[in-house]
Amino acid sequence: MYPGMTPQVGIARVVNDAARHLCEGDFDGALTDASIAVDATAGKCYPKRSNNKRCKAFLRDNIALMLLVATSGHLIARKGIRVPYNHPRINLDQKGTAPLEDILYHAVRCSLLHEGGLPGNIKFSAKRAMRFATGSLELPASLIAGLIVSVVCCPQNKRVKFAPNLRLVFGEKALPLRSLRGVGPEPAMEAIREISTRSNSRPDCSGQTAGGPKRSEGRDNSA
Questions:
Q1: What confidence score (pLDDT) does residue 197 get?
Q2: Would you say residue 2 lies in a domain?
Q3: How many domains does one find in the chain?
Q4: Is 50 exceeded by the pLDDT of residue 26?
Q5: Average pLDDT of the chain?
Q6: Residue 219 domain-assigned?
Q7: Could you give the CA distance from residue 125 to residue 171 in angstroms, rounded to a whole number?
Q8: Is 37 exposed, middle or buried (0-12, 13-18, 19+ CB in 10 A)?
Q9: How far apart are CA 16 and CA 22, in angstroms?
Q10: What is the dihedral of CA 146, 147, 152, 155, to 10 degrees?
Q11: Count of alpha carbons within 13 angstroms of residue 5, beta-carbon side
Q12: Residue from 104, 126, 153, 160 nearest 22 by CA
């Protein structure tokens, strides 16, 4: 939250900053801003819960939407997914896997906000797929766009004045994020599936289908 700002203005600001950092290829900066936006939004959704519980609940409620955005509408995982990853604060099942939302909270959000960086065994890249190696995890940067979309579409944020130039771009197709403001996860997923069927490209900041996120021209921040 920025000093002197209302919650609505603060959320709009960090969402715009997250999109800008994502466009510039600054994944840590984008994740930090997106995590702040998730924190603020989760507090509006579950005001009586602890920060840990409400953030995890928000991520769990929106994980299917995040994965849909991250995979250009190809993965529908309403119960989320579990991946192999070791972290001292994450409980693993018998197969050595953890829910992705727990990883996003403990390894990503908490590490960035409290320690100033990601753990050495996790990174985000412009590559499209998730990659698992012994003791390490690589996640697509498009998952950050999924975090941004989950904040924008939250019903508790329906009065937030998000920047009109924010767009989710799939190849030559673009979806203005303000059209998803406050609609909820399910309508947002329908809109994303509809536009993604017209393009085989992953969500991108500049509208380019090759390579990773690039610096956008002018002030058009797409997520």
A1: 74
A2: no
A3: 1
A4: yes
A5: 85
A6: no
A7: 18
A8: buried
A9: 10
A10: 100
A11: 13
A12: 126
In a domain, 43, yes or no: yes
Q: Is residue 71 part of a domain?
A: yes
CA 221 distance to own-chain centroid: 15
SS3 sequence of the chain: CCCCCCHHHHHHHHHHHHHHHHHCCCHHHHHHHHHHHHHHHHHHHCCCCCHHHHHHHHHHHHHHHHHHHHCCCCCCCCCCCEEECCCCCCCCCCCCEEEHHHHHHHHHHHHHHHHCCCCCCEEEECCCCCEEECCEEEEECHHHHHHHHHHHCCHHHCCCCCCCCCEEEECCEEEEHHHHCCCCHHHHHHHHHHHHCCCCCCEECCCCCCCCCCCCCCCCCEC
Q: Report how far Cα 61 is from the mean position of its chain's Cα atoms.
A: 13
pTM over 0.90: no
Check: CB of residue 205 under 8 Å from CB of residue 177. no
Other Cβ atoms closer than 10 A to 94: 5
Token representation of residue 160: 């937030």
Per the structure, the complete domain to which residue 117 belongs is given by 7-204
Token pair for 158: 């329906």
pLDDT digits (tens, 9 = 90+) for 95-126: 989 999 999 999 999 999 999 999 999 999 99
